[in-house]
Amino acid sequence: MNDIRRSILWVVFGLSMVLIWDKWQIHNGQKPTFFPTSAVTAPAPVAAQAPAADASLPAAVGIAAAGGETPAGAPSAAAVRHEITTDVLKLVFNSEGGSIIEAQLFKHAEATGSSEDQEDKPFTLLTQTVNSTYVAQSGLIGGSFPTHKTPMTLLPGPTSLADGQNELQVRFESAEVGGVKLVKTYTLTRGRYDMTVQHDVVNNGGQTVSPQLYLQLVRDGNKLSSETPFYSTFTGPAIYTELKKYQKVDFADIEKNKTDFEKTATNGYVAMVQHYFATAWILGEGVARDNFARKIDNNLYAVGAITALPAVAPGQTHSQQAMLFVGPQAEKVLEALTPGLELVKDYGWLTILAKPLYWLLEKIHGFVQNWGWAIVLLVVVIKAAFYWLNASAYKSMAKMKAINPRIMEMRERLKGNPQQMQQEMMKMYREEKVNPLGGCFPILIQIPVFIALYWVLLSSVEMRNAPWMAWITDLSSPDPYYILPLVMAVTTMIQTALNPLPPDPLQAKLMWMMPLVFSVMFFFFPSGLVLYWITNNVLTIAQQSLINKRMGVPLKITLPFDLFKNKPAAK
Question: Can you give the pTM of this predicted structure?
Fold first, then answer.
């Protein structure tokens, strides 16, 4: 009976790991490994429509394109670059449409880890080159109006934030197109990554016009250089509405025309998300808009919103404001800008647990001023909170370890009579008041908490380039000397050795192999994640050893070597 229970538990545990892995793959925009979803029949091709004003705009609301137009992602040879700087941002605007084609973040280094290239080189988020595209654009559609392809002039004014100056305004003015002129005013503020963008539609023509304003983020589908085969984070468009909340849109789904998000709304935002950083266009609350996400060229995608403007009579001007965010996924900053924007820092399906864990981690950091020690102390707090639950599990394990020699002797003696063996084993468990599953369920209950903490450490931009001590100069990068992964492997083996071995030899071998495989994966994980796991292992070893001592269980370590020689394990 005990073997059956253990086998069932191993099956449940293995299936749980498989399901969690598939969920993790789906969460990061990958195909599930073990349980792929059913194939979805692609919709029938739509009849060809008239070309749009630009390939990056929905065809349904576009206008006739000019011949020989430059592709959406390529920089125009005639365009002029204008550099604007604040204390936290360096922005490069293109005279073609007054779009932002480059953004550097002064407070975030370009490289991570111990690379010498990271010194004084700010991180580049937005960019427009031959091989890479990530830009923020806006313009008018619904007629012959200025778009993000229309040449614009930078009006005279300061191009950098002076000492003592809190705000900087940058104004771009287009030539008239169909009697309509578009003026964009970017207002940047000291210490902030969000900016107000005012669009003034000036009707100098002789007829009333009713344009639509579009706001879009365009980027290529290239993977980030920081991704590894062992872990990845979501990169791509996201749309938030009050009704459907946070909706990620995979590049692959855009390719297959299988996107699923709320197309019309009067609130929310559209965003492009990647590890640690994001950009977002935000229209005011109550402003009706149509959201879109589409492919605009080979390996080039756009996410955006279109809002209809009121009729503008001849000689009149209509102004429409929006907010553009270009920066790091700092949770407090994002929460203050608009509801739901903090969700671009994606914790997955355990957000309800991850958010309070991040709050606690941040509070601890406020005292120790070191993210590495904050991780250590947070794990200590969590282990303290689960102390009595863990104690129950470790007591059960200690009892199992104490009677394990008797079980092994009985199995050897009764191996020819399985039925009697099970009866004797159950009798022994009753006499010793041991529950074979008593050490498993308390630990299973805690797994969601530690998975949530894993996502907190993986997603928090505060870990990027954050030092701990000595050779660990970046908690978001792997240990350059593999010292932490080796320590983790050793502590994992010690922790496994303190546990009672399953009576079944195959289960005993699996019990040793799984921690080894798990440890190898962590050689490629960020140092902060490895540090958190080492701390958890050390505290577990200490508590389990203390309980074993109190219960009079001799400190005998079960070694794996004999198991793989098909001999009884050392007692």
Answer: 0.79
CA distance 375 to 381: 10
Handedness of CA 468, 469, 472, 473 (dihedral sign): positive
Pairing mode, strands 269-274 and 277-283: antiparallel
324 CB contacts (<8 Å, ≥6 apart)? 100, 136, 186, 194, 195, 197, 215, 279, 280, 281, 282
Tell me the HSE value of 251 on the side-chain side, using a 13 A CA sphere: 21
Three-state DSSP at 470 gives coil
**From residue 488, how far is each of 463, 479, 531 by CA, in Å?**
19, 12, 8
- Out of 88-102, 449-463, 510-524, pick the least confident: 510-524
Q: Is the pLDDT of residue 563 over 80?
A: no
Characterise 256 by phi-psi region: left (phi > 0), alpha (psi -120 to 50), beta (else): alpha
Residues 6+ apart with CB under 8 A from 474: 112, 113, 114, 464, 465, 466, 467, 527
**Alpha-carbon radius of gyration of the chain:** 30
Q: Find out whether 563 and 508 touch, Cβ atoms under 8 Å.
A: yes
Query: How far is residue 30's CA from residue 305's CA, in Å, rounded to a whole number?
Result: 26
Residues 360 and 378: beta-carbon distance below 8 Å = yes
User: Is residue 138 within 8 Å of residue 99, measured between CB atoms?
Assistant: yes
Angstrom distance (rounded) from CA 360 to CA 385? 13
The CA–CA distances, whole Å, from 275 to 110, 235, 460 equal 13, 7, 9
Q: Which residues contact 228 (CB under 8 A, 6 or more apart)?
A: 524
Higher pLDDT, 461 or 5: 461
The strands making up 152-154's β-sheet, listed across from edge to edge, are: 152-154, 167-174, 180-189, 194-203, 317-328, 277-283, 269-274, 236-241, 245-248
Q: How many Cβ atoms from other residues are within 10 Å of residue 290's Cβ?
A: 17
Is residue 15 over pLDDT 90?
A: no
The DSSP element (H or E) to which 384 belongs, if any, is helix 371-385
Residue 486 tokens, joined: 């080796």
Angle 441-459/351-368 helices, nearest 10 degrees?
Answer: 70
